[in-house]
Amino acid sequence: MPGVPSVGPSAAGSRSIPRPHQRPGIETRKALCASCDIACSVVTEIQKGRVTRVRSSDNPLFKDNICIKGIVAPKNFANPDRVLYPQKRVGERGSGQWQRVSWDEAMEDIGLRLKKIIAEHGPEAWAVSTSQWNTGTDHGLGRRIMNHVGSPNWISGVALCAGNTAAINRLTYGWYPWPDYDNTNLIVLFGHNPGKNSWVPIYNQIQRVKARGGTLIVLDPRKSECAEMADLWLPIKAGTDAAMAFGWLKVILDEGLYDKAFVERWTVGFEALKKRADEFPLERVSKITGCDAATIAKAARMYATMGPSVIPWTPITDQQRNSTSAIRLQSILRAVCGYLDVPGGEALMGFHPQIISESEIEMHHVLPESQKAKQLGSDKHPAFTYRGQAALREPCKRVWGHEYANQVTGCFMANPSAVFRAMAGEGPYPVKALFSFGNNTLMGFANMPLILKAMLNQDLIVVQEHVMTPTAQLADYVLPGDSWLERPWMFDGYGWLSIYKPSQQSMAPPGECKSTFELWKLTANALGMPEVVPWATLEDFYDYRIAKLGIGFEEFSSTYEVHADTLEFRKYEKTGFATPSGKVELYASILEDLGFDPLPYFRDEPPADPDFPLAMFTGVREGEYFQTGGRHIPEMRARKPEPVLFLSPGTAQQLGLSEHEWVEVETRTGKIEIMVGIRSNMPDGLVRIPHGWWKPETEQGLGKLSGALRYADAMLCPDDDDFIDLEQGIPHLKGLPCRINKLSGAPR
Asked: What is the DSSP string of 73-111?
């Protein structure tokens, strides 16, 4: 989620504001922190060529946006266990036997082996899994090379975190909007819980809205930190957000609280939607969600009458059995209440008119339609694949000027589970090469046992990383990546926004670490297609992208904090919406054509499993860590040394568990060991599992993988039909059946 100050005039053209008096002997640079996906503006302080301190920005717009992950970055990247040179596997896969090689040796061998795999199995046998907030300077170059080679099989964690939200929003009104926090009156958080060390800019925006008298509604099974400061908290049952949204819609439509003029002029399918909403009287919604009918009705009235209101992005509805319907219902609430592309509502920003976007860099048009059709998972779960988004190509060009809008990099992806099955030899064709850049693929998706099987069945695995993650331990090559302190960067909000933010390089990369830009350029060269990445340096590439501004990247980065075109609202009155009908599709023609229900719906849970009587939710990021990263940093481990589950005092008493006791959590997919934490804000029967745990200090290699097999939540998460969203094929992580088994012996 990008950390931008606002979508209004305060952001456009914001320039650097350096401190008037710099400390002697200290050089400073203006940077964007990439220790998570927010990209907060910070200042680095440099002594003798090394960054010694990261502090908050001198610009008042950003001065509050910093957290412990950014502050500790100099120590993180100076860690003695950092990978500084290319490493080649010399023993069996996962044996932990490595040989230092030169970049030339590594890339020549990687090129030869990848070309051999493509020659034997076709270009679709090459898959790439990446997280572009970690790699920073990918900028769509990976997709560009894959599109020229002919492989559609690109995957990312955005399949279940923001990227899928963008793809589903496009089905309703053609673009994923961004909240206008500066002018909104009311914020709704569907389970999202920004704090002082997670999603900090959003937390600060919420505080500012509250400070000027705005209203906050929070839906969360827990009495979370945001729920504590909410004006109204709905303690919703985990995984029932779509039913709750139906309840709100039913109230708003029955009581005539919607924007009738907008609905009549700019939507299609209203009567069908109203009929579907009638299937959700509040008594039914109350039974499903666990919230009383009066509170549901109160929340719906507040959202509709106290606006303009916003429903910011949330990972919660990205990771449910009813994800597509829940996201669609949020988009429908925005539209029918008249909050779409208006001040204080949610802005449709489009492309920056003077900067070449990453969607253009990716060159999706060069990938033949016959290869797009081979994208894994698109037959069964097409929503965010080329097939699912194909009907938006013409409308996108008509409204936004470009055929492909890869918002949050999540609109033309393969389905991750389908890719892993093909890697494991269980797909329609083999996938035999995996590139994993800044991604820790093994732990980043559901059904980790399947992913492990898939990786062990590969002919070539190439990893770019900082440390020997569990994924890196299974690779053929581990290539050292640079950090955000060691490279220039130009951030575009992952194609979500038309706001650009530059970052200056603060220090040289250590050892032989290289940027992802350099790595993709070397890959293109190794594949015999240097013309695909023709720019000599990253700075040359940025100069090319901003040429229409009439300045180079060096001047751009020293001058601007933020660069944005002037934002206009209600642009649809001139262009219509970027959908097949040109209107907001309450009744989604694209879903209908793909064979799915064109209206949102609610799919009930599978029958209760008596062997797994508890419910768990996972995917939760702790403030000290981002995804699976950061466990190698001593300062962070001192704050959060062990994985800890949360449960209520009542559930702990019922199971005979005590604080800090080690237990085993088990599902039908797998089991992990974890410490017990008893929290009074947890409801009975619900277990919270933290995301992404492994212990870098423990034994590496197959069979151990530094504790990943013992602690990672991905070991628990299934990806079978009962526990996925049907349109997307993404896993259900909110309300999985589980049980807790007592363990004996000393703490692990």
From this structure: HHHHHT-TT---S-EEE-SSTTS--EEE--HHHHHHHHH
Question: Which secondary-structure segment (H or E) carries 250?
Answer: helix 241-254
- The H or E element spanning position 254 is helix 241-254
- Give the dihedral sign, CA 702/705/708/709: positive
Burial 226-238 (b: 16+ CB within 10 A, else e): bbeebebbbbbbb
3-state secondary structure at position 173: helix
How many C-beta atoms lie closer than 10 Å to residue 534's C-beta? 11
Question: How many H-runs (helices) and E-runs (strands) does the chain carry?
Answer: 28, 27
Q: Rounded to whole angstroms, how far apart are CA atoms 211 and 194?
A: 16
C-alpha distances in Å from residue 231, one per residue of 187, 209, 513, 706: 10, 12, 49, 44
pLDDT at 10 over 60: no
Nearest to 417 by CA among 478, 376, 465: 376
Query: Which tokens belong to 413?
Result: 């992806």
Alpha-carbon distance 602 to 724, whole Å? 13
Six-digit token string for 643 = 């994985």
- Show Cβ contacts of residue 339 under 8 Å, excluding neighbours closer than 6 positions: 307, 308, 309, 310, 345, 346
Contact criterion met (CB below 8 Å) for 153 and 421: no
Instruction: Tell me 621's DSSP state.
Output: P
Residues 6 or more apart in contact with residue 48 via CB below 8 angstroms:
none
Residues 616/610, Cβ–Cβ less than 8 Å = no
Which residue from 718, 721, 711 is spatially nearest to 691, judged by alpha carbons? 711
Instruction: Return all residues near 366 (Cβ < 8 A) that are at least 6 apart.
Output: 147, 148
Do the beta carbons of residue 161 and residue 384 sit within 8 Å? Answer: no
Q: Mean pLDDT, to the nearest integer, of 291-296? A: 98
Q: Give the CA count within 13 Å in the CB-facing half-sphere of 73.
A: 29
Cα 590 to Cα 169, 370, 384, 386, 417, distances in angstroms: 12, 20, 12, 12, 23
Which residues, at least 6 apart from 568, have a Cβ–Cβ distance to it below 8 Å?
none
* Local structure of 674: helix, strand or coil: strand
Q: Which of 37, 138, 259, 492 is catalytic?
A: 37
pLDDT in tens, 678-719: 999 999 999 999 999 999 999 999 999 999 999 999 999 999
Average pLDDT over residues 407-413: 97
Q: Which residues contact 369 (CB under 8 A, 6 or more apart)?
A: none
Number of CB atoms found within 10 A of residue 566's CB: 8
Q: What is the mean pLDDT of residues 44-54?
A: 97
Strand order in the sheet with 477-480: 98-100, 87-89, 477-480, 460-465, 433-437, 126-130, 154-155
Residues 6+ apart with CB under 8 A from 104: none
Structure tokens at 442: 């093994």
Q: What is the per-residue pLDDT across 203-242, written as a single tens digit (0 to 9) for each? A: 999 999 999 999 999 999 999 999 999 999 999 999 999 9
Contacts of 453 (CB under 8 A, 6+ apart): 424
Active-site residue flag, 37: yes
Element (H, E) at 298: helix 293-305
Alpha carbons 44 and 53: distance in angstroms, whole number: 6
Helix axes 270-277, 241-254, angle to 10 degrees: 110
Q: What's the rounded Cα separation, in Å, for the pair 71 and 55?
A: 7
What local confidence, expressed as pLDDT, does residue 456 receive?
A: 98
> Distance between CA atoms of 196 and 130, rounded to whole angstroms?
27
CA R_g for the chain? 25
According to DSSP, residue 185 is labeled S
